[in-house]
């Protein structure tokens, strides 16, 4: 009688060999990533993955495979376990997040922007309603995060100061962790304001530079038509000189006309940021979101955007750490969108409650309003539309190797609009992603 296997290859284990013979292993359920570059060990591991194990692990390679869940017990129902992990994260009650629009106005008029700039700064009444809302949640939270968005959020600095200062006091009283981040064009972010924001627990920043000066200043134009590149660089240089703790993701959007100019931006940033691990660099191809302002631009189609991103990102890895955005996307639930999570809402400058920041004008995304007592008056049918748009009843998603990372929730908006599985570009480009991450992170 043949020995029964104690371990078999996980259905969520991805194996990739690079051009130089390095073996990369990745498990989407555990999030583990490992590399093996010795030919003899590579062959042994490939054999074990094919054959499994009929006895407990005896050597280092076998332990590597078992301890990181590249091999699992044959009786383990991994699909069910992925569902358990999803539900634990999706329905947790100890963590809460809000995306807040301090203003929906902006001091820029970027050529590809889809925003309509309908409203100015959040009123004091709405600000106070947000604070009351968080106060009601406070006794039940271990952690709370605010993501400031716009428009250009720093054009509504009064709302940011008021809300963050009050919630910082609440967090100290109720002893929950309060973090905050901001997506800003960086133009108003001089070093004095930056220090003030860090003191208000805003330690995560995303700032956009679209290539070197001439390409940036033709894409990201001030409201009055003026340039913005020099001022942003000046602000970054001053911020870099501080000893504060923060993370700044410098995002560079590019289209087909300026992809070849990204190397110049890397060289500019390298002169004053090289080696500073507080700064990360991330390149993002511009995809047309059907906005009127972008209809005539030479933008990328979804099926070609990932390769363009990886081509440019590989230029930066010698000088800047791997973008956490890419690394996080490979972790369990890492490729899901916050719009699909019940404990996550966006609140507009006028108090309108949304789930998605890309569809503010879609009626099914306008869930209701925050009232003066701080309660969210929402349409539960609309709410359910967003939080049930996942892999639960999707055979394609349930059979996919990327299910633990994506859970059918990469973009609930796509599922709602098309009734199709919203597969992330990561799925078709997993091997390229693994090469980028392992090289940059030194795995």
From TrEMBL:
InterPro entries: 4Fe4S-binding_SPASM_dom, Aldolase_TIM, rSAM, rSAM_sf, Sulphatase_maturase_rSAM
Gene Ontology MF terms in the entry: 4 iron, 4 sulfur cluster binding; metal ion binding; oxidoreductase activity
Swiss-Prot/TrEMBL keywords: 4Fe-4S, Iron, Iron-sulfur, Metal-binding, S-adenosyl-L-methionine
Cofactor or coenzyme needed: [4Fe-4S] cluster
Sections of the chain in a coiled coil: none
Domain Radical SAM core: 92-321
PANTHER family: ARYLSULFATASE REGULATORY PROTEIN, FEMO COFACTOR BIOSYNTHESIS PROTEIN NIFB-RELATED
UniProt protein name: Radical SAM/SPASM domain-containing protein
């Amino acid at each position: 009688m043949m020995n029964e296997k104690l371990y078999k290859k996980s259905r969520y284990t991805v194996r990739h060999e690079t051009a130089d013979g390095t073996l990369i292993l990745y498990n989407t359920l555990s999030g583990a990533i490992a590399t093996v570059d010795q030919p003899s060990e590579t062959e042994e591991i490939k054999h074990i993955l094919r054959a499994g194990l009929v006895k407990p692990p005896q050597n280092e390679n076998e332990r590597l495979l078992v301890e990181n869940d590249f091999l699992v017990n044959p009786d383990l129902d991994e699909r069910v376990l992925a569902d358990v992990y999803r539900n634990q994260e999706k329905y947790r009650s100890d963590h809460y997040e809000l995306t807040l629009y301090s203003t929906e106005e902006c001091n820029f008029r970027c050529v590809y922007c889809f925003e309509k700039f309908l409203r100015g700064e959040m009123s004091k009444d709405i600000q106070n309603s947000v604070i009351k809302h968080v106060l009601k949640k406070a006794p039940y939270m271990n952690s709370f995060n605010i993501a400031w968005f716009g428009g250009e959020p720093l054009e509504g600095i009064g709302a940011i100061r008021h809300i963050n200062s009050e919630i910082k006091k609440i967090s100290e009283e109720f002893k929950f962790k309060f973090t905050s981040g901001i997506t800003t064009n960086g133009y108003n972010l001089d070093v004095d304001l930056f220090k003030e924001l860090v003191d208000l627990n805003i330690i995560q920043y995303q700032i956009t530079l679209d290539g070197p000066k001439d390409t940036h200043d033709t894409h990201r134009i001030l409201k009055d038509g003026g340039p913005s590149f020099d001022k942003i660089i000046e602000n970054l240089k001053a911020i870099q000189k501080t000893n504060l703790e923060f993370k700044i993701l410098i995002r560079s959007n590019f289209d087909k006309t300026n992809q070849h100019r990204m190397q110049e931006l890397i060289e500019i940033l390298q002169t004053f940021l090289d080696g500073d691990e507080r700064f990360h660099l991330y390149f993002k191809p511009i995809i047309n979101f059907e906005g009127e302002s972008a209809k005539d631009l030479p933008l990328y189609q979804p099926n070609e955007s990932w390769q363009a991103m990886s081509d440019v990102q590989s230029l930066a890895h010698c000088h800047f750490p791997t973008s956490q955005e890419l690394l996080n996307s490979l972790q369990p639930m890492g490729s899901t969108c916050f719009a699909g999570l019940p404990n996550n809402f966006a609140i507009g400058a006028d108090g309108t409650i949304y789930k998605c920041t890309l569809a503010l004008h879609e009626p099914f995304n306008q869930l209701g309003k925050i009232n003066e007592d701080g309660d969210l008056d929402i349409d539960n049918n609309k709410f359910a539309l967003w939080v049930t748009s996942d892999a639960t009843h999707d055979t394609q998603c349930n059979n996919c190797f990327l299910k633990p990372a994506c859970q059918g929730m990469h973009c609930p908006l796509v599922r709602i609009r098309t009734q199709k599985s919203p597969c992330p570009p990561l799925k078709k480009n997993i091997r390229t992603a693994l090469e980028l991450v392992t090289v940059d992170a030194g795995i």
